[in-house]
């Protein structure tokens, strides 16, 4: 959970995704079309991805836990 908080506090917008998720792709596209440059963390390509997904659920993300969007260090549920 600490890694989630650390990553989400480093940039204005952070999106936790999975590369095969169509909703994740839509969220990323929306942010890019709005001119934002969010940090993208694809959990299925991260060695700690499963643990991070569990932490996202513990922080209140739905099941499945992605896409999870943090703006200004706060979760956008």
Automatic annotation (TrEMBL):
Belongs to the glutaredoxin family. CC-type subfamily. It is found in: Cytoplasm. InterPro entries: GlrX-like_pln_2, Glutaredoxin, Thioredoxin-like_sf. The keyword Cytoplasm applies. Keywords: Cytoplasm, Redox-active center. The lineage of its organism: Eukaryota, Viridiplantae, Streptophyta, Embryophyta, Tracheophyta. Its main location: cytoplasm. Residues 14-74 form the Glutaredoxin domain. GO terms for cellular component: cytoplasm. PROSITE patterns: GLUTAREDOXIN_2. PANTHER family: GLUTAREDOXIN. This is Glutaredoxin domain-containing protein.
